[in-house]
Write a sequence for this structure.
């Protein structure tokens, strides 16, 4: 059974009770097993009534059970194939074999660009310093044109954007690709330009349904992106040749 420890992120407008958690975990488990999730079955296997399940759906923030089960099915069935092991807050648009290829190439060649601005700048700074500890000297592209520093060798650009629509970031992505390089994008927005124009993208959970450009509200994107970077650098700098 799947243990879901982030109900506040999964259902940001919820008024769930403590005993709702077990029922929701049961439903998610049935979705992953491709078992029946009709309300009658869910009520029966959880020793409760259909009306109780309907009320649970409303406490989760949905108008009815149909909306609730559609959301869970989309979240844990359609998307689950791209969920990364040990990273329940991240979806990737490639499988681990492809991810391995991109990162092993980047960290072996040690040709890495980093870019973003605003609140994401600290993610660039952190990634830069973390790579430096591994004797990998990345280049921060803030205020720098790739054409002015290019050594004619393809680089891997790792770029962050919560919205996935950062104009300068998209310019850097294009410049990198024009140089024969590869783009790895980390964003919070699935249907964004960053996802569409990158070679590999990670969509990181931010925990709220609306994009908060001023970052005034509860936001898990930056912390989750930091954990993703920690995991990836650790994963791909274990080998001696790195």
């Amino acid at each position: 059974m799947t243990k879901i420890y982030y109900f506040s992120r999964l259902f940001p407008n919820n008024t769930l009770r403590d005993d709702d958690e077990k029922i929701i975990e049961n439903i998610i488990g049935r979705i992953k097993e491709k078992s029946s999730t009709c309300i009658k079955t869910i009520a029966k296997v959880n020793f409760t009534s259909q009306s109780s399940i309907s009320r649970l759906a409303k406490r989760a923030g949905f108008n009815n059970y149909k909306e609730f089960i559609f959301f869970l099915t989309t979240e844990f069935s359609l998307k689950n194939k791209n969920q990364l092991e040990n990273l329940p807050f991240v979806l990737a648009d490639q499988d681990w074999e492809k991810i391995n290829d991109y990162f092993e190439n980047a960290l072996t060649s040690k040709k890495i660009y980093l870019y973003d601005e605003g609140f994401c700048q600290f993610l660039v700074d952190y990634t830069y310093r973390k790579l430096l500890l591994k004797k990998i000297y990345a280049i921060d592209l803030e205020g720098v044109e790739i054409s002015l520093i290019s050594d004619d060798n393809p680089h891997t650009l790792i770029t962050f954007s919560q919205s996935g629509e950062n104009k300068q970031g998209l310019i850097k992505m294009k410049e990198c690709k024009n140089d024969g390089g590869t783009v790895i994008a980390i964003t919070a927005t699935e249907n964004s330009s960053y996802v569409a124009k990158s070679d590999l993208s990670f969509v990181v959970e931010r925990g709220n349904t609306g994009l908060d450009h001023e970052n005034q509200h509860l936001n898990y994107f930056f912390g989750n992106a930091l954990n993703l970077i920690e995991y990836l650098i650790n994963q791909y700098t274990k080998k001696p040749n790195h």
Notes: Strands lie at 83-84, 87-92, 112-115, 139-140, 156-161, 182-187, 200-204. Residues 84-236 form a domain with the Rossmann fold fold (CATH 3.40.50.10490).
